[in-house]
What does this fold into?
Amino acid sequence: MVVVRTDSSELDFFSVGSQTHSMIFVALMYLGVGMWYNHHQYGATGWDLLPHRDMWRELPYVASDFWRHVSRTWQGSTSVGGNMATGRYGYEPV
It folds into this structure.
């Protein structure tokens, strides 16, 4: 059996640890530059410094709605509220 060895520096970029560090670096840069911009452009302080603050505030609710939709899709449920007499998605038929 032939084992081909390559220099480990060639594969470092594709390692899980390297990718994780890159993602953390990008996230910190996003936060840092966004906070700097909000402070200098708008004079923001505190939570107002956070870039796209409203999106981060609504993200848990959006994720909850997404997973609720996915779970209903997996279960095959098409009605909301469980009342089949009202028609599809809880609306009364016309």
